[in-house]
Design a protein that fits this description.
about 85% helix, mainly alpha, about 0% strand, about 120 residues
Length: about 120
């Protein structure tokens, strides 16, 4: 595994734990879909900063350009996440944390490819 890939996993893991922690704290007070969105929003800053400084530290893009591109990348990933989450939670009646975990895994690969080849393109 490349150094960039290892950092991507570590930063992504930290962001995922943040996302899941916010979700777990809010899921009983809000609709699960809204708790998922708020978890994503909180984790976004950590994810961008970590990926910019560690995963893709040699990016040839400006911070501003990377932030804009990463926002698009992250929102596309969140869209995939929310679709899978709702299908598993509402459609298949899975437990909420398991549904969220699987949804986050499904979105992670898409986010890595878009981050590596577009948002932080070398």
């Amino acid at each position: 595994m490349s150094r960039s890939g290892l950092w991507f996993l570590l930063v992504g893991g930290a962001a995922a734990l943040t996302h899941m922690g916010v979700f777990a704290a809010l899921e009983h007070a809000l609709w699960p879909e809204l708790a998922n969105a708020l978890g994503f929003a909180v984790a976004f800053g950590l994810s961008f900063a970590g990926h910019r400084r560690l995963s893709f530290q040699h990016a040839a893009t400006s911070v501003r350009q990377s932030l804009g591109r990463f926002a698009v990348t992250a929102l596309l990933g969140f869209g995939s996440n929310e679709l899978v989450f709702v299908a598993l939670l509402r459609g298949l009646q899975w437990p909420s944390l398991l549904a969220l975990f699987i949804a986050m895994l499904a979105a992670a690969a898409q986010t890595y490819v878009l981050s590596r080849h577009w948002a932080f393109r070398r």
